[in-house]
Design goal:
transmembrane, elongated, about 150 residues, mainly alpha
Amino acid sequence: MTGGVALLLVLAGLSEAAGRVLPVVAGRFGASRAGTVGLLLTGAVVDGAVFALWPVLASAVAGAPLAWTPSLLAPLLLSAVLAFPLLGPPLHGLLQLGVGAGLTAALAASAGIGWWTAAGCVAVAGIGLAAAVDGVRRVVVRLHRRRMPAVVA
């Protein structure tokens, strides 16, 4: 992985994390700046790692090598930027499909398989990663709720 690709992955992860964390933090009374920055950086690392794993898992399913290139990753960065709630999840999902189509074309060429087979591999990898991340987020939320003190009225 080149330095440029790593930088784009970190920026995409930070943008995705900002789109998820800032609306939650904005609704919390008394949220600290340090806590918000910590959440953003943690989210950037997690989302960047998930983005980095997408072509790796797709290539593992297909049995052929595939890696991020700046041309494949640039639409993902745009997609992450558009994760902000003002523009909405449908547009974000549409752009993610576009990124998946780019990965599909690269995987089909790399593995010498048909486009639909490659699309299935990319979809399986993406859905698996999304399910894993969603599961981890749900566990973190449950653990966080248990630690919060009860409000006495």
